[in-house]
Amino acid sequence: MENLDIKIAKSEDAPIIQKYLGDSDKGAYIQEWLDAQSRGENLVLIAWATDEAGEYRPVGRVTLVMTPPKEEVRRFLGDKVVGVESLHVDEQMRRKGIGEALMLRFEEEAKKRGLSIIQLGVERESLPAVNLYKKLGYKDWGHGQVANSWVEN
Fold this sequence. Notes:
Layout: E1 5-8, H1 14-21, H2 28-38, E2 42-50, E3 56-65, H3 71-77, E4 81-89, H4 98-112, E5 117-119, H5 127-135
Parallel strand pairs: 4-5
Antiparallel strand pairs: 1-2, 2-3, 3-4
């Protein structure tokens, strides 16, 4: 895609990121990711591009989760694991290579930090995401599912 920039998110960009890429019912989580980034726990990457209306804006996001992996993951993969969280591309901007560009930059950032194994979860029914990850060479890790849970405030 022409005019696509992948940048590390800045706190001052939180409102515009929320406007275009946030879930209206979960507005605080973008700021929570940015707060975690300031503590060195993750890295938020934002894809910026000019949309059909000519506006240069955020069109995609992905977060590198750099906290230690769960025990059942560490047992098989070791400690050099980084997690993919919340790869998302604006609906109007999909199928233009933005998700692929975000993941390639994700991989670069992981390598810079000495993280050599990428862990991600995807709903099997989300065929566009599954196909993207397959295209990029990702495979099922072969050790079953790992349950995730979280507490909503």
